[in-house]
From TrEMBL:
Coiled-coil blocks: 126-153
Keyword Transport: yes
UniProt organism field: Rosistilla ulvae
Domain called CusB-like beta-barrel: residue spans: 236-283
GO CC field: cell envelope
UniProt GO BP: copper ion export; plasma membrane copper ion transport
Pfam families cross-referenced by the UniProt entry: Beta-barrel_RND_2
Protein name (Swiss-Prot/TrEMBL): Putative efflux pump membrane fusion protein
């Protein structure tokens, strides 16, 4: 669970800006939590998680009825296979090449014979043979064009497969980040509409500390400085420390107070921190 520790409290600091900055009673709050919605209208067929489950990024959390989407995907796959076969079938092109070669050879031999013996081949016959050659050339061009169209059709069908797969994916709800499922907001076998929240997930592994400091004394030089958060945790109010560093110093000053907003992030070791906890933050040299 990633939390936000808002520190708008008293800051105990030495006169030197390089000295440790101590903030008491720092509050721990969630920083990243998402209500995941349904993407498509339909029946929510099942949840694959329950409250309290720790999930990984991209883990499947819930499914909606995808029978029609899956059928469309299957049809798109078959159409893509047909288009692939056609795009790789160059039989017509090779046949046209052979036919052209034969026609050209026949015309050439006849033309040479007519030159040797004027009466052996009539002009009409030579014209017909020449026409056959031209027809063979056009047939070759048509075969080449058909093959180019087949390859383009394959690309179109491939995009159709991707589109169909996306529609299937829209029926699946996946975790956007590693975190904990804290609330199921509907039940399996209920109808859901697009945008309707179905579950809530919170990030656990990092916390954020936000503090307002004197803008006249502190600035960008704080970025990267190590921090330590000390919190009393149950049982027995045992004190536990969490390490981190300053990750952001705002370039803006608050116009009324002259304070600057500073963030530090700490690692929630073993997921011990909970929202609402309070502790002491120290920004070190």
């Amino acid at each position: 669970m990633e939390f936000l520790i808002v520190l708008a409290l008293s800051v105990l600091a030495n006169d030197s800006p390089a000295s440790p900055i101590v903030v008491e009673d720092a509050a721990v709050k969630l920083i990243r939590h998402v209500r995941l919605p349904a993407n498509e209208p339909g029946v929510l067929t099942e949840f694959l998680v329950k409250e309290g489950d720790i999930v990984e990024q991209d883990q499947l959390l819930a499914k909606s009825d995808d029978r029609l989407a899956a059928l469309d995907k299957h049809i798109a796959d078959l159409e893509f296979q047909v288009a692939t076969e056609k795009s790789e079938n160059d039989v017509d092109e090779r046949y046209a090449e052979k036919s052209l070669a034969v026609a050209q050879s026949e015309w050439q031999l006849s033309a040479e014979a007519a030159q040797r013996v004027a009466t052996s081949i009539s002009a009409t016959e030579l014209s017909k043979l020449k026409l056959v050659v031209e027809q063979a050339k056009l047939a070759r061009e048509q075969a080449q064009r058909d093959l180019r169209i087949a390859k383009l059709t394959k690309q179109v069908k491939q995009r159709a497969v991707e589109s169909a797969q996306q529609k299937v994916e829209l029926r699946l709800t996946r975790a956007p980040f590693k975190g904990m499922i804290v609330e199921l907001m509907t039940q399996a076998n209920e109808w859901v509409d697009p945008g309707q929240p179905i579950l809530r997930i919170v990030q656990l592994d990092r916390l954020r500390v936000e503090v307002n400091l004197d803008g006249k004394r502190y600035g960008p030089e704080l970025k990267g400085r190590p921090v330590k958060l000390k919190v009393a945790l149950p049982p027995g109010d045992r004190e536990v420390e969490f390490d981190g560093e300053v990750t952001f110093v705002s370039p803006e000053l608050q116009p009324v107070t002259g304070q600057v907003r500073v963030w530090a992030e700490v690692i929630n070791r073993d997921l011990l921190l909970r929202p609402g906890s309070r502790g002491t933050l120290t920004i070190r040299k």
